[in-house]
Amino acid sequence: MKRGAKKCKATINGLSQIEADVMQIIWKRGKTTVRGVHEEMLANGYIPYTTVMATMTNLSQKGILKQNKSDRAYLYSAVISNTKIANEIVDNVIEKVLGGSPKPIISHLLRLKNEAEVDELIELRNKLNP
Asked: Which of 77, 82, 80 minimizes the C-alpha distance to 67?
């Protein structure tokens, strides 16, 4: 890997609320500027532009966002999908909080899901582990 090249961190401990809000907008839009994210966030209440900019810069430094610096305004896009981040967070919780056992999470999910969703989960499990 070239010196200074950014690599997505192997483990993600989670996203703060503002990071999650920013990422939701970017996943929805695909590519956008700080101004685009800021304007959408303003619809939900006041948030300083500099806070959005700092958050997006931090996400870029973590390897979650990609900055395209070819234009006057940086264009940001997600490097990692929402599903991949969720999987990494759950894996991290299983390892660091639950001592490697996924049983409490599976039990929690099964309690929250209706019968059709439970069947979908079982079908998915069977596809993953034939």
From this structure: 77
Tens-digit pLDDT profile for residues 93-122: 888 888 988 888 888 877 766 778 778 877
pLDDT in tens, 60-70: 999 999 999 87
- Please tell me the pTM assigned to this model: 0.73
> Which residue type sits at 118?
V
Task: Assign a CATH topology to domain 17-78.
Answer: Arc Repressor Mutant, subunit A (1.10.10)
Find, among 3, 50, 47, 60, the residue nearest to 21 by Cα: 47
Tokens, residue 68: 């395209």
The type of residue at 33 is: T
pLDDT at residue number 121: 76
Mark 39-70 as b/e (b = at least 16 C-beta within 10 Å): ebbeeeeeeeeeebbebbeebbebebbbeeee
